[in-house]
Amino acid sequence: MTYTLLNLAFLVPAAALALVATVRASDRRRFLRGLGLTLLVVLALTAVFDNVMIGIGLVAYEPEHLSGVFVGIAPIEDFSYAVFAAVVLPSLWSLLRPSRRRPRAHA
């Protein structure tokens, strides 16, 4: 099994959860901006730290399980956990927080 197939098992449900969170968001534009910013920051940090960890030999990958696409020396598949976290956590936060609706005034 390749890392790509394994990653899809997690990233497809993550995308579905993000879609539900986007549809249910009261301010979709704000939610998507936050999600995008989170993704950008997490991916940038992942690129730096994964390249360092691979460069000093802490982590190694079997080449036959990789797609051959790299960011520096980090295989693209190594970014899946960062994408998963950056998509799922804000989505869950959005879906699980209490509603901001105001209670009805009693007459």
From TrEMBL:
InterPro entries assigned: Lycopene_cyclase_dom
The UniProt transmembrane annotation reads: 6-23, 35-59, 79-96
Q: Name one GO biological process term.
A: carotenoid biosynthetic process
Q: How does it sit in the membrane?
A: Multi-pass membrane protein
Coiled coil where?
A: none
Its domain of life? Bacteria
The Lycopene cyclase domain is annotated at: 2-86
Q: Which GO terms describe its cellular component?
A: membrane
Please list the GO terms describing molecular function: intramolecular lyase activity; lycopene beta cyclase activity
What span is annotated as the signal peptide, if there is one?
none
The reply on keyword Magnesium is no
Location in the cell reads: Membrane
UniProt keyword annotations, A-Z: Carotenoid biosynthesis, Isomerase, Membrane, Transmembrane, Transmembrane helix
Q: Name one Pfam family in it.
A: Lycopene_cyc
User: Under which pathway is this protein filed?
Assistant: Carotenoid biosynthesis
* Name of the protein: Lycopene cyclase domain-containing protein
